[in-house]
Amino acid sequence: MSKLVHAQWSSKMTFVLAAAGSAVGLGNIWRFSYMVGDNGGAAFVLVYLACVAVVGLPVLVAEWLIGRRGQKNPINAMAELAGKNAQPKAWALVGASGVLAAFLILSFYSVIGGWSLSYTLGSVTGTFTGQDADGVGAIFEGLLGNPLLLLLWHTAFMALVVWIVARGVVKGLEGAVRTMMPALVVLMVVLVGYGMTTGHFGEALAFMFRPDWGALSGDVVLAAMGQAFFTLSLGMGIMMAYGSYLGEDVNLLGTARTVIILDTGIALLAGLAIFPIVFANGLSAGEGPGLIFVTLPLAFGNMTGGMLLGLMFFLLLTFAALTSAISLLEPVVEFVEERTPLTRVMATLVSAVAVWLLGIAALMSFNVWPEPVMFGLNVFDLLDTFTSKILLPLTGLGAIVFVAWCLDRRSVAAELNLTGGSEQVWLVVARYVAPLGVILVFVNSLLG
Ligand code: TRP
């Protein structure tokens, strides 16, 4: 147990920035938009919003609360709180499955982080200037088809993450988050503005918000729930870890609302920026993981000042990806550090090399190894699917059930400043609606 002396966030703002830095990442822009496209648009978006509100919010609050009370890393916090509340120690499994999820997610996250780095460089060298949809598509195909190039960028991204974590400059990043997050929002708004000039904005709006409920299936709902967990960094214990640094005075519900509004807002803006470009150029919304890379460069390549804006956008996206990736590596490093005699720096290196190796298998899915390995999915899709659709929701379910059913009801209500009616709402949502929602979604998608 290395973290005996537990510091607290210097201010509430620092904590919000760290949580937002973890939450806002590739999930909001890259993953959200391609998931919307793959899953038929508005029905997915609306279910996703419902999942964020009804499941995401209570789970986020539950994770912070566990962390703040446990004052330890997720596995030990769960074990200790379980012991104190006369519950089996097996609850620590919730923490352990989070570490596994972090490891698996980071491996493919780093591959996409690499794409973002590559496009940052591409913007500087003017690769996209004047390109049409075919040209931009060919550039992306060229990247995907070249495993060595993908490896190079994946390696570069992981190296950046390791460098930041090993040097312990994570705290220093918070200042940068404070300026770069608003800058990202401004750029997204500019891109939405560009979308309005394409003449296909209305189509995009309808695609995102006018549901064709016929498109809804068990799997679409599961995908939407998985996205809600992924984008809020839930079900992995990272929010528990952050919660362990939280002072007693921080209002958990209010803070959760702030983080969620920011996170969801950025995702919706990303959709409104990307889909007008899709429709204006006759592209396919269901393009898959490459969606933002074959759409946004079209905007940058054809608008005034596009080169500079493109550079800024991919830089900010890379930065957002880095702050999320750091939060993914952290629990793995902490796990290795506690269970082996390795120093912090060595533990960081060992964890990163393991993640990097798995990432190589993931990037090969786009070229030399596209074949399905299990359940008809290639390595990349398998990693993404298994984590977001299974591990994250299950772990999150564990966290909310633990808080709602195993901790003293009154003390939880007091900690969340709930009384009377609001306490009743919390109880109904945390005890029944959120857990049953997760279970129903599982059952429903199993039945097809
Ligand atoms: N939320 C981040 C994103 O949207 C990714 C991420 C960081 C994450 N930490 C996580 C996802 C923990 C799940 C669990 O890009």
TrEMBL record:
The keyword rRNA processing does not apply. PROSITE patterns: NA_NEUROTRAN_SYMP_3. Its main location: membrane. It is a multi-pass membrane protein. InterPro entries: Na/ntran_symport, SNS_sf, YocR/YhdH-like. Pfam families: SNF. Keywords: Membrane, Transmembrane, Transmembrane helix, Transport. This is Sodium-dependent transporter. It is found in: Membrane. SUPFAM superfamilies: SNF-like. It comes from the Bacteria. The lineage of its organism: Bacteria, Pseudomonadati, Pseudomonadota, Gammaproteobacteria, Oceanospirillales. The chain crosses the membrane at residues 12-30, 42-66, 90-112, 150-170, 182-201, 221-247, 259-283, 303-329, 349-370, 390-407, 428-447.
